[in-house]
């Protein structure tokens, strides 16, 4: 014989409380790659607790070639629309250094604003350029995990903004898994090898590699600023939020304010 459950009448929870704000100091939206294994963890590890990161993913495919990087930009408006629809974020991040170098910072911002009009936008190339100016660098050494032509695109992106490159080195990797699998110790050693006496700073490219955690150590060993993609992204995003509290443990960049472009 089938038993019949009695009707349940829900009771209201009648407790006094004040809602906790979600991200009281700001909300940052990250548009990362479908194949990215690292940037969400990296960025959250740098962010202060009162700023929240919300993520969506853009369609892409390995290998990481100039052609594939250019092709994925068309998905940016759709991805931007999925960042907290109805609520929005204060700053939107495009989490791909090489993709920005291939497509261009202005075009990236335009595509994201198609899906999320009016939001402030940053990307690793723009944030890196601003970070390097903030620390007073004009001549830079560059380390990337990429194939040679993708590495060249990143270097040319900095040159187009008025920087001189002293040495450019790449690991020759063509997929995100292998990039994230790079041990931080290997990235540190590459930064030391890429450095030259005439370099004002070292830039370590790519949101998929675990370079932010070695930035401070690399600076101590080199005696000069070290800028990484994810470190620069958080620094720039926090400045766009007018965030005033200090961030420690990720290099001297966070002691500097953005400088106007000449």
Would you write up a description of this structure?
It is a single chain. The protein is α/β, with parallel strands linked by helices and 262 residues long. It folds into two domains: 26-123 and 232-254, Rossmann fold; 126-228, Rossmann fold (3-Layer(aba) Sandwich), CATH 3.40.50.12500. The chain has eleven helices and eight strands. Strand 7, helix 10 and strand 8 (226-228) form a beta-alpha-beta unit. The mean pLDDT is 94.
Name its key features.
globular, four-stranded parallel β-sheet, 8 strands, 16% strand, alpha/beta, 2 domains, Rossmann fold, 262 residues
CATH topology of the largest domain: the name is Rossmann fold
Terminus-to-terminus distance: 84 Å
Order of helices and strands: EHEHHEHHEHEHEHHEHEH
Fraction in helix: 25-40%
- What share of the residues does DSSP label as strand, in percent? 15-25%
Taking all residues together, what is the mean pLDDT? 94
Can you name the CATH architecture of the largest domain? Answer: 3-Layer(aba) Sandwich
Order of strands across the biggest sheet?
Answer: 2-1-3-4
Name of the CATH class of the largest domain? Alpha Beta
Q: Total number of helical segments?
A: 11
Low-confidence stretches: none
């Amino acid at each position: 014989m089938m038993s019949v459950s009695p009707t349940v009448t829900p009771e209201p929870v009648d407790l006094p409380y004040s809602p906790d704000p979600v991200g009281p100091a700001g909300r940052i939206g990250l548009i990362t790659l479908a194949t990215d294994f690292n940037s969400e963890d990296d960025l959250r590890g740098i962010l202060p607790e009162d700023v929240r990161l919300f993520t969506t993913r853009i369609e892409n495919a390995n290998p990481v070639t100039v052609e594939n990087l250019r092709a994925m930009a068309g998905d940016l408006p759709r991805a931007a629309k999925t960042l907290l629809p109805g609520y929005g974020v204060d700053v939107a991040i495009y989490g791909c250094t090489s993709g920005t170098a291939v497509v261009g910072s202005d075009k990236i911002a335009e595509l994201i604003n198609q899906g999320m009009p009016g939001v402030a936008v940053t990307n690793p190339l723009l944030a890196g350029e601003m970070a390097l100016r903030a620390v007073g660098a004009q001549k830079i050494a560059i380390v990337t995990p990429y194939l040679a032509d993708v590495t060249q695109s990143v270097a040319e992106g900095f040159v187009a903004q008025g920087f001189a490159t002293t040495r450019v080195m790449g690991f020759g990797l063509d997929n995100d898994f292998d990039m994230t699998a790079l041990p931080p110790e290997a990235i540190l050693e590459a930064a030391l090898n890429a450095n030259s006496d005439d370099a004002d700073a070292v830039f370590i490219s790519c949101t998929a590699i675990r370079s932010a955690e070695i930035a401070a150590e690399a600076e101590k060993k080199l005696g000069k600023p070290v800028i990484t993609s994810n470190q620069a992204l958080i620094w720039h995003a926090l400045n766009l939020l007018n965030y005033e509290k200090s961030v420690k443990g990720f290099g001297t960049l966070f002691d500097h304010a953005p400088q106007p472009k000449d």
